[in-house]
């Protein structure tokens, strides 16, 4: 029934004495009267909000590790649906979804591996520094060489070394062929 | 735009645009000039007449001129109350002409009656028409809610539920003009004292200013958040309005286009009147009567359950205050409800207290109360129903106006000017 105080008002009295509120008489008043003050909902996006803090991958992985199990369950569900499904269009869609999920998983694993490698390098250097020797930092090319060596070892273990090497040779051959002078220039 | 129109008119008169302060200065100089001319005419008069009159006027302007009349008022003799009947439906409003000789009253059936005070005769009757007879009928076709008379007694203005304000010539009761523009029932009318400027308030929550002499609309003022239930003005270019359920009383400063907002009542504020230029009195439907000063946001004095409690549907509820009337520039106040009597009150020192004086027994809803200019009698407009609706009906009451003569204990009241306000 009672109104809340009007927002734009000029108080033309001393600070101590509170006289009547003075307002403009020419502003039209909205038809609906505000009886109870309603708080405006402040929308915040946690991606851009300062409250969320900076992105730290380790902390993020730790707090959201529960999502991995959920993702696994969802993948199983999609696989089941794919088996049951008869409709070709839907089957395609489900297949794409399944592929997407598996690829996301693999990407995550790759990133994790990278991080672990970095950590192990840093640990090595720390140990060396502790022991008293000078810590050395690897060049990028040397890091790549190390990666290559690891990959080679991995492939050998799984037995896919031959196929991988042949594919690589083919790819390099095509690239080299492009470099050769073409028939036009003869 | 309307304000531009007014500015243009002023330019036509004075050939110079002026601020409100300059306007006040010009009016003051004009007034002094008139007084000087008056003195030149009346030479054989002793004493500093102009000085005295100026002093009185200044005090009246400042709201300090006060006739301490209240303590000398005696409860009137019930047999001396005259009842004048003529309206079919409850009387909603009435006005007394400034010379205290004629009373105009209007009722829910749309009729207007002009009464002579001394004889009680009906000088003129303008009957109200039924719904839909606006073309044929000269009078109102719906309930008349409010009326006002100019301070020279020339124009009478009435407002009804059909959004029309009708201007009448008071002497002949001929309709001069109709003002349209409001979008809902007209609930308050008042002339600025000494001019022909009319203020009107309506249920559409705006206050409009009209110039009756030129039949022109001047401007509209906004601010209320509920229907306006009452309006009053004195000689300043200001008016006060009561805002019903929004719980505010607003003073509108027209030249500055601003408003002062006061709040204090708990119920719906139903009626408001100015006592002098600086103080006002209002009544609400929770039975409270409040005295206001222009410098404080809350009322200076508040009397709760002024007319007592009534038994309504098994609950104790206060009697609604349906009318308040002050004797201008004095400390006497009358309030009316349907409790069976009109109560007279005395305003204490500086309007900070409200003391009951006596009761005048009157049966029915007191829809309107007015004191005569001199203070010798009080007129009440009675009805079987409240002027705004039909919540209750008192069968024993008569739709009439009552003239109550007031007696003074002393021989003649002398204008007493208090030292400090």
Identify low-pLDDT runs of chain A.
Answer: 3-13
Oligomer: heterodimer
Report the helical percentage of chain A: 55-70%
Return the average pLDDT of chain A rounded to an integer.
85
CATH fold name of chain B, please?
Answer: Methylamine Dehydrogenase, Chain H
Q: List the domain count of chain B as a whole number.
A: 1
Strand content of chain B: 35-45%
Number of helices of chain A: 5
Protein name (chain B): U3 small nucleolar RNA-interacting protein 2
Main location (chain B): nucleus
Subcellular location (chain B): Nucleus, Nucleolus
Keywords (chain B): Acetylation, Isopeptide bond, Methylation, Nucleus, Phosphoprotein, Repeat, Ribonucleoprotein, RNA-binding, rRNA processing, Ubl conjugation, WD repeat
Describe the structure.
Chain A: Keywords: Coiled coil, Nucleus, Ribonucleoprotein, Ribosome biogenesis, rRNA processing. The complex is a heterodimer of chains A (186) and B (421). Helices cover 58% and strands 2% of the residues of chain A. Chain A has 186 residues and is an all-alpha fold. Chain A has a domain at 54-135. The longest helix of chain A has 44 residues, at 88-131. The N and C termini of chain A lie far apart (97 Å). The model of chain A is unreliable at 3-13 (pLDDT under 50). With 421 residues, chain B is mainly beta. Chain B has one domain: Methylamine Dehydrogenase, Chain H (7 Propeller), CATH 2.130.10.10. The radius of gyration of chain B is 21 Å and the shape is globular. Chain B starts with a helix and ends in a 13-residue tail after the last strand. In chain B, 46% of the residues are buried. The A-B interface holds A 1-3, 6, 17-29, 33 and B 205, 221-226, 245-248, 251-253, 257-263, 294-297. Strand 1 (21-24) of chain A pairs antiparallel with strand 18 (258-263) of chain B, so a sheet runs across the interface.
């Amino acid at each position: 029934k009672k109104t809340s105080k009007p927002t734009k008002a000029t108080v033309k009295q001393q600070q101590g004495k509170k006289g009547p509120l003075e307002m403009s008489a020419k502003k039209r008043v909205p038809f609906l009267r505000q009886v109870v003050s309603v708080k405006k909902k402040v929308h915040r996006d946690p991606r851009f909000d300062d409250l969320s803090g900076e992105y730290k991958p380790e902390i993020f992985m730790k707090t959201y590790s529960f999502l991995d199990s959920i993702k696994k369950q969802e993948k199983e569900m999609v696989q089941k649906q794919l088996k049951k499904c008869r409709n070709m269009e839907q089957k395609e869609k489900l297949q794409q979804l399944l592929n997407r999920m598996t690829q996301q998983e693999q990407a995550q694993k790759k990133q994790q591996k990278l991080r672990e490698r970095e950590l192990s390098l840093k640990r090595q250097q720390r140990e060396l520094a502790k022991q008293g020797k000078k810590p050395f930092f690897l060049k990028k090319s040397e890091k790549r060489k190390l990666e290559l060596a690891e990959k080679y070892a991995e492939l050998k273990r799984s037995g896919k070394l031959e196929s991988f090497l042949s594919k690589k040779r083919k790819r390099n051959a095509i690239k080299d062929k492009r470099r050769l002078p073409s028939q036009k220039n003869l | 735009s309307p304000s531009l129109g007014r500015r243009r008119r002023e330019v036509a008169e004075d050939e110079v645009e002026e601020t409100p302060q300059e306007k006040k200065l010009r009016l003051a100089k004009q007034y002094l000039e008139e007084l000087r001319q008056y003195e030149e005419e009346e030479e054989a008069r002793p004493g500093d007449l102009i000085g005295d009159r100026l002093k009185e006027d200044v005090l009246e302007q400042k709201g300090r001129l006060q006739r301490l009349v209240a303590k000398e008022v005696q409860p009137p003799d019930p047999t001396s109350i005259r009842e004048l009947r003529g309206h079919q439906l409850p009387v909603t409003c009435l006005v007394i002409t400034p010379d205290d000789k004629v009373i105009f009253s209007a009722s829910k059936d749309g009729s207007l009656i002009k009464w002579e005070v001394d004889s009680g005769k009906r000088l003129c009757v303008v009957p109200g028409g039924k719904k839909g007879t606006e073309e044929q009928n000269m009078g109102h076709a719906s309930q008349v809610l409010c009326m006002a008379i100019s301070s020279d007694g020339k124009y009478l203005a009435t407002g009804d539920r059909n959004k029309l304000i009708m201007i009448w010539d008071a002497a002949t009761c001929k309709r001069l003009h109709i003002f349209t523009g409001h979008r809902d029932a007209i609930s308050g009318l008042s002339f600025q004292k000494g001019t022909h400027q009319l203020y009107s308030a309506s249920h559409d929550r705006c206050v409009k200013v009209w110039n009756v002499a030129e039949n022109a609309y001047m401007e509209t003022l906004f601010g209320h958040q509920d229907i306006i239930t009452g309006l009053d003005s004195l000689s300043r270019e200001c008016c006060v309005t009561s805002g019903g359920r929004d719980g505010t009383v607003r003073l509108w400063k027209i030249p500055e286009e601003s408003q002062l907002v006061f709040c204090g009542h708990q119920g719906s504020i139903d009626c408001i009147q100015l006592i002098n230029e600086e103080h006002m009195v209002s009544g609400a439907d929770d039975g409270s009567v409040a005295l206001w000063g222009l410098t404080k946001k809350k009322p200076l004095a508040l009397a709760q359950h002024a007319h007592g409690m009534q038994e309504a549907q098994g609950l104790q509820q206060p009697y609604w205050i349906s009318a308040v009337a002050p004797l201008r520039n004095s400390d006497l106040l009358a309030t009316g409800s349907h409790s069976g009597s009109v109560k007279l009150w005395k305003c204490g020192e500086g309007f900070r207290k409200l003391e009951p004086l006596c009761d005048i027994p009157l049966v029915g809803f007191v829809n309107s109360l007015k004191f005569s200019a001199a203070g010798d009698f009080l007129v009440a407009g009675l009805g079987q129903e409240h002027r705004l609706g039909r919540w209750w009906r008192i069968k024993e009451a008569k739709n009439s106006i009552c003239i109550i003569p007031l007696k003074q204990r002393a021989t003649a009241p002398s204008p007493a000017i208090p030292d400090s306000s």
